[in-house]
Amino acid sequence: MFLGKVVGSVWATQKEDGMDNLKLMVIQPIDFRGNEAGQQVIAADRIGAGVGENVIVSRGSPARILFSGRTVPVDAMIVGIVDSFDVTEAGKEE
């Protein structure tokens, strides 16, 4: 999993079966200071995240578990909307 910021959305007029109810969002990975931390990814969204929100993203096989046995071509899934995060000095990156 990683922390990211929703920076955009992707519109697809045609999607694979099973993806009709999914929004596709562009996610910029961030560190715990809010700085960019990697390349942007496209993640499926079933929880209603919006542009500008910080989110938790699951990648790989765990992202597909939410589909109850259906085969859906999803590699990244938004699994939480982050209200706030806080890092103590002990968790400070060097």
UniProtKB/TrEMBL annotation:
Record PROSITE patterns: BMV (PS51932)
InterPro entries: EutN_CcmL, EutN_CcmL_sf
The keyword ATP-binding is annotated on this UniProt entry: no
GO terms for cellular component: carboxysome
Pfam families associated with the record: EutN_CcmL
Keyword set, alphabetical order: Bacterial microcompartment, Carboxysome
Main location, first listed in the record: other
Keyword Oxidoreductase part of the UniProt annotation: no
Subcellular locations according to the entry: Carboxysome
UniProt-recorded name of the protein: Ethanolamine utilization protein EutN
Taxonomic placement: Bacteria, Bacillati, Bacillota, Bacilli, Bacillales
